[in-house]
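=== RUN LOG ===
request id: a7f3
mode: sequence -> structure
chains: 1
length: 678
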Amino acid sequence: MLYQSLTEMGQTILDDHLRRDIYFLLGCSYDGKAGKAYLKLLDPDSQEVKIVYDESGHRPYCYAKMPIEKVRAMNLPGVVDLVEERKYDLLRDREVVLTRIVASDPLAIGGGANSIREKIKAWEADIPYHLCYLYDMNLIPSAPYYIEDGRLVEVKPDEARIRKILDTVFADFPAEEKKLLYRWVSLLEADQPRFKHLSLDIEVSSPVATRVPSPSKAKDKVIAVSMVGSDGRREVHLLKTKNFEESKRDEDFEIIVYDDEAEMLKKVYEIMWSYPVIATFNGDDFDMPYLRHRGEVLRIPKDQIPITLGREGASLRHGIHIDLYRLFMNRSIQVYAFDNRYREHTLEAVAQAILGKGKVVIEKPISELSSTELARYCFQDALLVHELLTFEDELLLKLLVVLSRISMMPIEDVCRHGVSGWIKSLLYYEHRRRGCLIPRHDELIEEKGVTSTKAVIEGKKYRGAIVVEPKPGVHFDVTVLDFASLYPSVLKEWNLSYETVRCPHEECMDNIVPETDHWICKKRRGIQSEVIGCLRDIRVRWYKPMSGRSDLAESKRRWYGVVQRALKVFLNAAYGVFGFSEFPLYCPPVAESTAAIARYALKKTIEKVKSLGIEVIYGDTVSGDAELFIRRGDMITRLTMREFYEMEKSRNGALWRDGKEYVPCSSDVEVLTLNRDG
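=== RESULT ===
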């Protein structure tokens, strides 16, 4: 991967022995005019973003399972080259000869009814080009790099320290697994970037109070733009309107007043250019496109406008845009990262749940507010976005960096996609790294679309988990036995992956999954099993214990907590994703086998416990959003497990033991749950 020299980037080259400039890979995009991919590299010292274009000649492509001559005879539109290539087909456990169809641009691959993937049965034709480029160049988003001889080289953390972690924490692991562990621990332990960021909110004057202004037409005036920066900027840019009044200076922020809207927007754009990260709440759908299109309506030169618009949202020419609305809408973020603290996805609901404060309440339309009321209302929204980004030492930004590295997706993509998209990207990256062909969704269903157990719950495709019915009565001296990441552990220990379950080898067909007709490969490790299993081991063995150590500095413990939380988001979603029929690597026997083995493990555990003379009184999995009925005296309250936990924590405090937080339950409380029949 060859890039422009540092001189061409407007930077002085220093002797590598004296100084090595470090950059964080902030993002990747495609420039249609140049016909090239380009990278956004953040200089952590200056907080400037260097735009670096690809010079390797990389182009968009897909594959066909037919000879070059046959593909050439089809005269497919947009094809610039055909190349024979060999890849390994994991599904059939054999090498295959393919035709790589190289296209002129990404739209030629999949941009409409006349695109290549609509004309031919193609493989790997649905991967966004910027991700395809990152996979092929083995570039990891949000990781640190330096440039050497026109090439990006990943900055590795202290090798001696990583080796020490492996030799102490993972000493009992085989050498092959340690290689993968080394890669992941090195990546997760790499330096974290600190971002200069700006939170932004706009208000638009609409002549009809009940009509939401159209971002694509942008006919109405922008009357206020509020900004809160990590560098201390606290401003509201106000346009003089009929309701304007000379307002007193607000101690919380500065008010800058303009007579001309175009001049105000030019100043806003100028400020935006100076930040590598801009955050909004629902900015993909409103604030950013409105600012872009309003500038065009006012005939502000396009090269002065820092905002770019794509099919998935808004970005910046010189940086990235984080839409917190899209992120907080993510169910996995809501449940696993924030323990279901918020139930609705408005700025008011999220801020109240996480920060304990909300928006300024107004009782009249925006266009009728006085300039003082408008400034305060607009500023509060930007302030809430800023505080959501920065609470607990910028936990959210750190979480995004870790999720970006694990998923192999830039931060913008992480915000805009659900956890299934993250896991898909990680597995696609692993296929490319290993030289393996990514299977099509339809061929996976065709080859392995069978299930062999009957669902207990109507509408399900196969049988799920079991519940041990509780024994009535009051029980004392009770010990809780917990499976650490049960489903990820099953995936790893039983070697479950789309290519290993019902593999093509006759000699493996006696390796039966309990309670099913499926078998598991004995000849090779599965890609899903290996990757998910490795992440599970790192979380359980290293990051989760370290996050609970009282002898560490608070900042260090908090960092370990961020990583283990990010890993938890991935791991808790992995099984569900593999059992989701719309997931591109969905394989029904894998999902069914995972549930069957989990049942088998629970049953065997109960048998073992009973053989030791221990009574089993209950067995279940209760999540944070499970509903409970709380009876205190004559009053019954309906709460989620998380809400009840927080309520009792505020009353009785919490205890730390073995890296976990325990909350004593009040003696005057009776907790009831629903049985299977509701």
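=== NOTES ===
The chain has six domains: 1-58+137-155, 61-125, 156-189, 197-407, 439-611, 627-672.
Confidence is low (pLDDT under 50) at residues 4-19.
=== END ===
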